[in-house]
Amino acid sequence: MKLQPIDIFIIGLYLVAMIVIGLILKKRASKNMDAYFLGGKTLPFYMLGLSNASGQFDISGTMWMVTLAFIYGIKSAWVPWLWPVFNQIFLMVYLSVWLRRSSVLTGAEWIQTRFGKNKGATLSHTIVVIYALIGVLGFLSYGFIGVGKFMEIFFPWDFVSQYVPFDIPAEYVPHAYGIFFTAIATIYVMLGGMLSIVWTDVVQFAIMTVAGITIAVIAMMKVSPETISAIVPAGWDSLVPGWTLDLHWTDIFSDANEKIMNDQYGLFGIFIMMMLFKGVFNSMAGPAPNYDMQKILSCRSGKEAALMSGSVPVILLIPRYLMIMGFTILALAFFKDLDLTTKTGAIDFELILPNAINQFVPVGVCGLLLAGLLAAFMSTFASTANAAPAYIVNDIYKKYINPNASNKTMIRASYIVTVAVVVISVAIGFFVQSVNSVLQWITSALYGGYIAANLLKWHWWRFNGNGYFWGMITGILAAMVCPFIFDGYTMVDGHFVERVGEYANNAPMLPLFYFPVLLVISLIGCIVGTYSAPPVEDETLERFYITVRPWGFWKPVYNKVVAKYPQVKANKNFKRDMFNVAVGIIWQMCLTIIPMYIVIREGMPLLTSILILAITTLVLKKNWYDKMSKDEVEYNALMKELNLGEKK
């Protein structure tokens, strides 16, 4: 496909606008470190929510979700629990408030707030910085090569080369595109910091919303509900999960059955229960040290941090799933017109999105859509790139190398670090074909070690920096070893079988199924490490408890605090928070399936979903928002009385 001049003009206009925004905001962003990395904590929650939603509207994720919707239909709404998507609800209900009250710049700096400045705290600080930086490099390198391959479909090199005064070998064409687009993202991140990211994300999300609605309308005009019903298997249009999936594709779609088997989602009931089990622990651990955490720390208050996290599903899910289902039903109705066959002759369902854009999107709208998908990549890339210098400059350079560095010096150091991190990630991207499995292994291992230690840090007073460090290390090591142990097995009809004979080509067992093993090993590391060192100093624990106000196993600390400050009340909101989380997950699911039912025009399920959404919204208004607002007033009054409020 060759883009028309109007499409190229729209994409070019978008790229120029991003750089202009960075230049405009450069002066405001360079005032100090808070202004550069957290926008001076002056941005309203809805803009940060828009920015966070834009960062989650990525190209590769959208391609994957179109594939899921094509094969699993409405039931595909459950599969993102793998991440889990409902961690946003835990953040909304209480975790964002706790995190923002710590008043720090990065997740690594938070360690000092919780564990003090002893040896264990230093070890914990180190492991968090390493975790954050490796994660950043991994995500940036994948983003780099991903956007290059995606854009190559729409900008064939034989078309572009006539305007470029040099030749590039065919195998490096995606890298050339990747360098071009990452360079633009790097420029506006480097110039404007968090302010630039947020303002460009607002523009980017507006583009994606228009594109999503446009695709949904085109699909609904071209494909009737009767056409869809005649194509899809029984149960495709139902959200209700059975014990087994029971989706059986026929005729030209029969390759989908092989993908269902390799995905290992056949026993759907067990799959959902395992996702929920892992997801709850994952969510209670809080956000990983990435752009999501930086957006929470950028909020003006704990209440606004909660509202920001709660606004993300509202902002993100409806336009995203309008686009996803629009492409899905177009692909179903015109499947024969799509070229999804790979060089080996197999069907690659992940090619649905780019091929559907090629096939169905009209001139002008195509430029808008590509600008939007490009914006989605650049938003995620920019937010991730902003996190790296925050950790290196604040948690390494300022802490160990130049404690007395001026704001101007640290901002300049941030420029250098941003460029260096992007260059390194691009270099990794050039070898992505050979290090793909290694990078997946590292990022999986890092995340495997994250959950137990970060769950305990909120809820157990005796947990110390030593326990945090050893919990992370044992979890990471276990997650590095387990893939080798379980690589020889796969899941077939609910049973673990060896990958030999007829099952030799089946996909390895999903990490989801051996997650309990990782959790137990990491917990053992946490507990042994904790009791091998003294508790955290009373002063650190008491200040943390007063300022953050967590619930959990904090009674010994509470008794010491209340002896000094009788006006401090214990946080007894565990049951209320868990109830609101349960209601919030249902609320979020409604926001997911409503646009899906709109596009396939299923009237009764749509009305039922809207009714449940209204009821859950009312419950959250009464039992979450109103009570959180009251708690925030009481908290601010207490902080003022104790002279512990955030220094402005």
Helix-and-strand structural type: mainly alpha
The geometry reads as globular
Strand order of the largest sheet: 1-2
Biggest pleated-sheet summary: 2 strands, antiparallel
Low-confidence residue ranges: 434-439
Name the average pLDDT: 83
Give the SSE string.
Answer: HHHHHHHHHHHHHHHHHHHHEEHHHHH
Oligomer: single chain
- The proportion of residues in beta strands is under 5%
Total number of β-strand segments?
2
Q: Cα distance, first to last residue? A: 54 Å
Report the total helices: 25
Compute the gyration radius: what is it?
25 Å
Helix percent band: over 70%
Structure in a nutshell:
The protein is mostly helical and 648 residues long.
How would the blueprint of this fold be written?
Elements: H1 5-29, H2 33-38, H3 45-56, H4 59-72, H5 87-101, H6 107-115, H7 119-154, H8 157-160, H9 173-222, H10 225-231, H11 255-263, H12 268-284, H13 291-297, H14 302-333, H15 352-360, H16 365-401, H17 407-430, H18 432-448, H19 451-459, H20 465-486, E1 489-492, E2 495-498, H21 515-531, H22 538-548, H23 555-564, H24 574-600, H25 603-642
Antiparallel strand pairs: 1-2
Helix pairs in contact: 1-9, 1-16, 3-9, 3-13, 3-14, 3-16, 4-14, 5-12, 5-14, 5-24, 6-7, 7-9, 7-16, 7-17, 7-18, 7-20, 9-14, 9-16, 9-17, 14-15, 14-24, 16-17, 18-20, 19-20, 19-21, 20-21, 22-23, 24-25
Give a verbal description of the structure.
With 648 residues, this protein is mostly helical. It is 72% helix and 1% strand. It contains 25 helices and two strands. It has helices at 5-29, 33-38, 45-56, 59-72, 87-101, 107-115, 119-154, 157-160, 173-222, 225-231, 255-263, 268-284, 291-297, 302-333, 352-360, 365-401, 407-430, 432-448, 451-459, 465-486, 515-531, 538-548, 555-564, 574-600, 603-642; strands at 489-492, 495-498. Strands 1-2 form a two-stranded antiparallel sheet. A hairpin with a 2-residue loop joins strand 1 and strand 2 (495-498). Helix 1 (5-29) runs parallel beside helix 16, helix 7 crosses helix 17 and helix 22 crosses helix 23 (555-564).
